[in-house]
Automatic annotation (TrEMBL):
<keyword id="KW-0560">Oxidoreductase</keyword>
<protein>
    <submittedName>
        <fullName>Quercetin 2,3-dioxygenase</fullName>
    </submittedName>
</protein>
<dbReference type="InterPro" id="IPR014710">
    <property type="entry name" value="RmlC-like_jellyroll"/>
</dbReference>
<keyword id="KW-0223">Dioxygenase</keyword>
<feature type="signal peptide">
    <location>
        <begin position="1"/>
        <end position="16"/>
    </location>
</feature>
<dbReference type="InterPro" id="IPR052538">
    <property type="entry name" value="Flavonoid_dioxygenase-like"/>
</dbReference>
<keyword id="KW-0732">Signal</keyword>
<dbReference type="GO" id="GO:0051213">
    <property type="term" value="F:dioxygenase activity"/>
</dbReference>
<dbReference type="InterPro" id="IPR011051">
    <property type="entry name" value="RmlC_Cupin_sf"/>
</dbReference>
Amino acid sequence: MKTAQILAWMLSGAIATTAASSKYTEDDESIVVDVAPDFLRPYVLPKYRGHAIKLTQTQTIRFSITANSSDGAFALIQHNGKNSGWLSSRPHAHHLVHEHFYCARGRVQLWGQKNVTNATDEARVGTPGDYGNIPPDTIHTFQLIEPDSQLTHVFHPGGFEHLFDVYSLGGFDTSTISSPYPAVPGDDNPLGGAPTPQEKVLLAGLDLYVASEETYIPRRDFVNGTAGDKSLNWHNGANTLPNDPTEPYFVAKDYGSKYLNSENGYKVIQPLATPEQVTGGNFSMGTIIMSPKLHNQSSSTATLPHHFALQMEDGQLVLSVSGYDTVSLIQGDVAFIPSGIPFMYHATVPFTKFMYMNAGAEGLDHQLLKNSVAWDFPAYPNA
Ligand SMILES: *[C@@H]1O[C@H](CO)[C@@H](O)[C@H](O)[C@H]1NC(C)=O
Ligand SMILES: *[C@@H]1O[C@H](CO)[C@@H](O)[C@H](O)[C@H]1NC(C)=O
Ligand SMILES: *[C@@H]1O[C@H](CO)[C@@H](O)[C@H](O)[C@H]1NC(C)=O
Ligand SMILES: *[C@@H]1O[C@H](CO)[C@@H](O)[C@H](O)[C@H]1NC(C)=O
Ligand SMILES: *[C@@H]1O[C@H](CO)[C@@H](O)[C@H](O)[C@H]1NC(C)=O
Ligand SMILES: *[C@@H]1O[C@H](CO)[C@@H](O)[C@H](O)[C@H]1NC(C)=O
């Protein structure tokens, strides 16, 4: 795009707004899609839409960002269901894929143990906003424990999500009323014991290695939502990020590092994983809380060198991607913007919050942190 075109687009930006969540179209011109595209392009996938499958009789997986839609960089799925009474997966490790958990609704139990001698099995009860970092070769599993639970998973590189097409009980229709999950009674644990030799081969091809019951049984001795190294805080003190991309860790909502950027209204940035904590050093994720745009402020602008995505958590964000219509995003909406494409964004209501993902070390967080100060609150100043 030529400079003059970008300028014209920036001047015209943020006038027409359409609600991503209510406008639901197959119009090629729209940034709003009804399924994650098979190729790299900017898109907004509204809350609870997109390709989805039944993982069990009462649990769903929705594919918001896929290897195809991110050109292989990363994947984002939402896992919804009710309290099950059993683990959603047999304890396992990946050898290549780095996985991130983010509790988005209800409560979930999370386990992570580095697969080395004498490592501690760290277990947490996660409530919305809680985060877990699971590097390759970390044995992990998870369980939904409230009637309306949602665990968000991020995988990088992308591709691992294909496993849920293989382990599918069939498609789940999200095109009309899109319930979070099938509202049916019961649901017995569909997972048997150890995988058969054939299943092991299939799973290894998908980068999943089941931990045998002889070597790993998830601990259940939670006290105040945590079990493991007693020196680690859980909702009772700071969580610091390790300087080691092979180390699993958990961060409780609002107990990690916080930074305040005041360039264009306020942004409170809370990194959950930086390039220092991830395999390959080329991914980052965290959350940003924004103040609403005042009449005398302008939208924030960015053109990032890596693919960027966000999942809305609170408030309302107006997003304008160069070449596309401007949209308003609400809780649950997902936006994906390929590298090099300029975009503008602002909040319309106080305390607008999203989770961000960057496929590289110089993403949105990196740009904002250059002009930020250490900050003690998940709240911005009131003036
Ligand atoms: C990725 O896109 C290709 C080309 O459109 C398609 O054939 C393939 O099925 C897609 N893969 C997945 C997992 O959707
Ligand atoms: C594991 O712990 C045991 C018991 O404390 C100790 O004897 C052993 O040296 C440890 N092994 C390693 C590899 O740290
Ligand atoms: C854990 O490490 C051991 C020793 O390298 C290996 O035999 C085992 O398969 C690993 N477990 C998983 C679940 O990857
Ligand atoms: C659990 O939390 C309560 C209330 O904050 C506290 O008094 C108690 O010491 C905690 N227990 C442990 C084992 O940390
Ligand atoms: C990130 O680094 C890994 C390991 O070097 C590499 O396989 C992957 O392609 C990189 N991803 C991106 C998006 O650059
Ligand atoms: C912008 O507007 C707000 C609210 O009307 C006001 O408090 C603030 O001083 C203004 N800032 C500037 C730089 O004019």
